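Summary of Year 1 activities. Much of the first year was spent building the evaluation harness for sequence design. The harness presents a backbone, in tokenized form, and records the residue chosen at every position. We chose the following record to illustrate the format because it has been used consistently in internal testing since the harness was completed.
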């Protein structure tokens, strides 16, 4: 998996809304988010960042097939193309851990997000 996909995945982990939300419902996490991904182990790129948008509690991530949720308390659980992330959002910031692979070699690290 390319690091760009992992970066989009981690960013998406911060921004994914509850899938069962009613149409036109607003989420407390709606808005633009800057996400920074840091690799702690493995052969993935050392750092990456991405700007993503959440609307009606759902993430838009060009070129990424994202699935996941943010619970009512801000708990983040998400997966994309074999990579996984979890963490916690609170107000305008959040952080957590991610893991995936690059060229079949495991990678893992942390992510941090801030609403812009």
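For this record, the design step produced the sequence shown next.
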């Amino acid at each position: 998996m390319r690091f760009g996909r992992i970066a989009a995945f981690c960013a998406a982990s911060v921004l994914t809304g509850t899938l069962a939300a009613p149409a036109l419902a607003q989420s407390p996490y709606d808005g633009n988010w800057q996400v920074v991904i840091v690799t702690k182990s493995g052969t993935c790129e050392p750092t990456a960042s991405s700007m993503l948008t959440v609307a009606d509690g759902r993430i838009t991530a060009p070129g990424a097939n994202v699935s996941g949720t943010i619970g009512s308390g801000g708990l983040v659980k998400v997966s994309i193309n074999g990579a996984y992330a979890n963490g916690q959002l609170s107000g305008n910031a959040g952080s957590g851990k991610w893991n995936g692979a690059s060229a079949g070699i495991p990678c893992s690290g942390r992510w941090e997000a801030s609403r812009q």
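The chain has a mean pLDDT of 77. Quantitative recovery figures across the full test set are reported in Table 2.
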